[in-house]
């Protein structure tokens, strides 16, 4: 699941500069990025990309919001380090792979020319790019970040799995809800925005 291809055809370069370039490219030219930057079996750069996104987002939350994580055994610094490590090293990759598995099952019924699980993992990973800005407690900003992430997931799925957009949108609905609605707290932020605007939420 996490093999590192030595010389992937069309895959991503390695290193900090390559990560920064991938982040800019997926936001500015997403269709071109997903066509050229996703390669079979080349998951490692995508997983590292998503880990860095989550790390930056969580570090921002820690810096700007008090009591983000619970304190264990009266050790606030150690507790923050522990929960941050769990978010980046355990929760992120587990959620990404489980969501990719679910996405693959959905695509089996809708995309006869689909790519493999590896490509699905990469699409999900790179779609998180805008969520580097989702850390501050600004609901509107978080809604915007998660909405753009969901759009990138649609674009990536359409390009990589050879789907028309009208099929890609419903195909990614549940994975997008998991990753962006719950994982990056987009639903909670949207609820706050609507409540502040005086819109009654029936649930």
TrEMBL record:
<keyword id="KW-1133">Transmembrane helix</keyword>
<dbReference type="InterPro" id="IPR006977">
    <property type="entry name" value="Yip1_dom"/>
</dbReference>
<protein>
    <recommendedName>
        <fullName>Yip1 domain-containing protein</fullName>
    </recommendedName>
</protein>
<dbReference type="GO" id="GO:0016020">
    <property type="term" value="C:membrane"/>
</dbReference>
<feature type="transmembrane region" description="Helical">
    <location>
        <begin position="81"/>
        <end position="102"/>
    </location>
</feature>
<keyword id="KW-0812">Transmembrane</keyword>
<feature type="transmembrane region" description="Helical">
    <location>
        <begin position="47"/>
        <end position="69"/>
    </location>
</feature>
<feature type="domain" description="Yip1">
    <location>
        <begin position="25"/>
        <end position="180"/>
    </location>
</feature>
<keyword id="KW-0472">Membrane</keyword>
<dbReference type="Pfam" id="PF04893">
    <property type="entry name" value="Yip1"/>
</dbReference>
């Amino acid at each position: 699941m996490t093999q590192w291809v030595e010389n992937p055809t069309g895959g991503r370069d390695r290193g900090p500069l390559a990560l920064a370039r991938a982040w800019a490219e997926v936001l500015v030219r997403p269709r071109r990025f997903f066509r050229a930057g996703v390669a079979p079996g080349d998951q490692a750069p995508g997983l590292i990309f998503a880990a860095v996104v989550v790390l930056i987002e969580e570090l921002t939350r820690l810096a700007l919001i008090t009591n983000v994580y619970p304190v264990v055994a009266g050790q606030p610094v150690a507790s923050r380090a522990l929960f941050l490590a769990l978010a980046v090293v355990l929760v992120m990759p587990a959620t990404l792979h489980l969501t990719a598995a679910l996405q693959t099952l959905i695509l089996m019924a809708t995309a006869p020319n689909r790519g493999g699980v590896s490509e699905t993992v990469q699409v999900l990973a790179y779609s998180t790019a805008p969520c580097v800005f989702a850390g501050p407690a600004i609901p509107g900003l978080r809604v915007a970040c998660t909405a753009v992430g969901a759009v990138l997931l649609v674009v990536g799925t359409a390009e990589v799995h050879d789907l028309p957009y009208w099929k890609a949108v419903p195909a990614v609905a549940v994975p997008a809800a998991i990753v962006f609605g719950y994982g990056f707290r987009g639903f909670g932020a949207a609820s706050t925005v609507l409540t502040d605007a005086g819109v009654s939420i029936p649930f």
